[in-house]
Fold this sequence. Notes:
By secondary structure, this protein is mainly beta. The chain has a single domain, classed as CATH 2.40.50.140. It is 12% helix and 54% strand. The protein has two helices and seven strands. The protein has helices spanning 58-67, 113-117, and strands at residues 7-13, 18-21, 27-41, 44-57, 73-86, 92-105, 122-123. The longest helix is centred in the middle third of the chain and has 10 residues, at 58-67. The chain is globular, with a radius of gyration of 17 Å.
Amino acid sequence: MSSFNKVILMGNxxxxxxxxxxxxGVSVTEFSLAVSRRFRxxxxxxxxxxxxxxxxxxxxxxxxxxxxxxxxxxxxxxxLNQRRWETADGQKRSKHEVVALNVxxxxxxxxxxxxxxxxxxxxxxxxxx
Length: 129
Protein backbone atom coordinates (compact mmCIF):
# COMPACT_ATOMS: atom_id res chain seq x y z
CA MET A 1 0.00 0.00 0.00
CA SER A 2 1.39 3.40 -0.91
CA SER A 3 1.25 6.39 1.40
CA PHE A 4 1.14 10.16 1.15
CA ASN A 5 2.82 12.59 3.56
CA LYS A 6 2.06 16.26 2.89
CA VAL A 7 1.31 19.06 5.34
CA ILE A 8 0.25 22.63 4.54
CA LEU A 9 -0.13 25.04 7.45
CA MET A 10 -0.68 28.78 7.78
CA GLY A 11 -0.01 30.49 11.08
CA ASN A 12 2.19 32.82 13.10
CA UNK A 13 5.60 32.26 14.68
CA UNK A 14 5.45 32.01 18.47
CA UNK A 15 9.09 33.11 18.88
CA UNK A 16 12.08 34.16 16.80
CA UNK A 17 13.57 31.32 14.69
CA UNK A 18 16.65 29.49 16.00
CA UNK A 19 19.47 28.83 13.49
CA UNK A 20 22.14 26.17 13.97
CA UNK A 21 24.41 24.10 11.74
CA UNK A 22 24.83 20.34 11.45
CA UNK A 23 28.34 18.86 11.81
CA UNK A 24 28.48 18.80 7.99
CA GLY A 25 27.65 22.53 7.82
CA VAL A 26 23.99 22.32 6.75
CA SER A 27 21.84 25.22 8.01
CA VAL A 28 18.89 24.21 10.20
CA THR A 29 16.29 26.64 11.50
CA GLU A 30 13.55 25.68 13.95
CA PHE A 31 10.48 27.63 15.02
CA SER A 32 7.07 26.99 16.49
CA LEU A 33 3.95 27.91 14.54
CA ALA A 34 0.60 28.80 16.12
CA VAL A 35 -2.22 27.62 13.86
CA SER A 36 -5.68 28.68 14.97
CA ARG A 37 -9.21 27.88 13.97
CA ARG A 38 -12.43 29.56 14.95
CA PHE A 39 -15.56 27.51 15.45
CA ARG A 40 -19.06 27.88 16.79
CA UNK A 41 -20.14 25.76 19.75
CA UNK A 42 -23.66 26.21 21.09
CA UNK A 43 -23.96 29.67 19.49
CA UNK A 44 -20.67 30.83 21.02
CA UNK A 45 -17.56 31.56 18.95
CA UNK A 46 -14.45 29.81 20.22
CA UNK A 47 -10.82 29.81 19.12
CA UNK A 48 -8.63 26.72 19.19
CA UNK A 49 -4.86 27.02 18.76
CA UNK A 50 -2.50 24.22 17.78
CA UNK A 51 1.26 24.70 18.20
CA UNK A 52 3.42 22.91 15.63
CA UNK A 53 7.22 22.64 15.57
CA UNK A 54 8.73 23.44 12.15
CA UNK A 55 12.21 22.51 10.87
CA UNK A 56 13.76 24.13 7.77
CA UNK A 57 17.05 23.17 6.08
CA UNK A 58 19.57 24.83 3.75
CA UNK A 59 19.39 28.33 2.27
CA UNK A 60 15.71 28.56 3.14
CA UNK A 61 16.65 28.03 6.81
CA UNK A 62 19.02 31.01 6.62
CA UNK A 63 16.32 33.15 4.98
CA UNK A 64 13.85 32.23 7.74
CA UNK A 65 16.36 33.29 10.39
CA UNK A 66 17.15 36.53 8.58
CA UNK A 67 13.63 37.68 7.67
CA UNK A 68 11.23 36.12 10.19
CA UNK A 69 10.47 37.07 13.78
CA UNK A 70 7.90 36.28 16.45
CA UNK A 71 4.39 37.09 15.23
CA UNK A 72 5.18 36.91 11.50
CA UNK A 73 2.75 34.93 9.38
CA UNK A 74 3.93 32.11 7.12
CA UNK A 75 2.59 29.31 4.98
CA UNK A 76 4.53 26.08 5.45
CA UNK A 77 4.43 23.30 2.87
CA UNK A 78 6.19 20.15 4.03
CA UNK A 79 5.97 16.67 5.47
CA LEU A 80 5.27 15.22 8.89
CA ASN A 81 8.29 13.67 10.62
CA GLN A 82 8.72 11.77 13.88
CA ARG A 83 12.11 12.43 15.46
CA ARG A 84 13.33 9.72 17.87
CA TRP A 85 16.26 9.86 20.28
CA GLU A 86 17.54 8.46 23.53
CA THR A 87 18.45 10.66 26.50
CA ALA A 88 21.75 10.40 28.37
CA ASP A 89 20.03 8.30 31.04
CA GLY A 90 18.63 5.85 28.45
CA GLN A 91 15.03 7.10 28.17
CA LYS A 92 13.53 6.90 24.69
CA ARG A 93 11.92 10.10 23.45
CA SER A 94 10.10 11.14 20.30
CA LYS A 95 8.27 14.14 18.91
CA HIS A 96 6.38 15.04 15.78
CA GLU A 97 7.44 18.02 13.68
CA VAL A 98 6.90 19.34 10.18
CA VAL A 99 9.94 19.37 7.92
CA ALA A 100 9.31 22.39 5.69
CA LEU A 101 10.02 22.01 1.99
CA ASN A 102 8.78 25.53 1.25
CA VAL A 103 8.11 28.49 3.56
CA UNK A 104 6.15 31.45 2.16
CA UNK A 105 6.43 34.70 4.10
CA UNK A 106 3.09 36.46 4.55
CA UNK A 107 2.76 40.25 4.40
CA UNK A 108 2.64 41.94 7.79
CA UNK A 109 -0.91 42.75 8.92
CA UNK A 110 -1.79 46.18 10.29
CA UNK A 111 -4.95 45.43 12.32
CA UNK A 112 -6.37 41.94 12.59
CA UNK A 113 -9.36 42.60 14.85
CA UNK A 114 -11.82 43.38 12.05
CA UNK A 115 -10.37 40.71 9.75
CA UNK A 116 -11.00 37.94 12.29
CA UNK A 117 -14.72 38.78 12.40
CA UNK A 118 -15.05 38.04 8.68
CA UNK A 119 -13.43 34.59 8.78
CA UNK A 120 -15.41 31.45 8.11
CA UNK A 121 -16.47 29.60 11.22
CA UNK A 122 -16.14 25.80 11.45
CA UNK A 123 -18.57 23.55 13.23
CA UNK A 124 -17.31 22.25 16.56
CA UNK A 125 -15.92 18.71 16.45
CA UNK A 126 -18.80 16.27 16.56
CA UNK A 127 -21.40 18.86 15.53
CA UNK A 128 -22.95 19.27 12.13
CA UNK A 129 -22.38 16.48 9.62
